Request: fold
Amino acid sequence: MENKLRLEIVTPYGLVFSEDVDEVVASGSEGEFGVLPWHAPFLTTLKIGMLTYKRGSETGYFFVNWGYAEVSPEKVLILADSAERSSDIDIERAKAAMKRAEERLKEAEKFDRARASVSLDRAIMRTQVAEKRSVK
Ligand code: ATP
Reply:
């Protein structure tokens, strides 16, 4: 019985990641949760947050934007609106998105406040995740 967990991250833009890892920690709507191989099955919604995996001495970081996690004994399937590995995050783009959202929040009567607010959350989280570079 192999002690590996397949982590698969899928978005409408394509397959972001599909590899065997030792451990996954993700941001569920109800809080952070960790998964090791042979975890009991469960399904949860995800919020805008960071997902981390460990494989030996390696740690990988992803930005994850909403969605679902389906946990089964040998697999964690993440279905997200968008997701990027920390090293793929364009920090300048995230900073521009942050500035745009902040400007829109200042002019709340002209823009959809809720939309600007989640856009800001995404941009802030992307800059935080981008600072975490994978350690091998
Ligand atoms: P923006 O306003 O910059 O488009 P957004 O939060 O609206 O950001 P999303 O709707 O979450 O963007 O994602 C659209 C696509 O662009 C996805 O493929 C996502 O992975 C990618 N993407 C968005 N922002 C970044 C970024 N800063 N770095 C890399 N990829 C990004």
Q: What stands out?
A: Residues 113-130 form the longest helix (18 residues). The first strand starts at residue 5 and ends at 11. The beta strands are 5-11, 14-21, 23-28, 31-35, 42-45, 49-55, 58-65, 68-72, 75-79, 82-85.
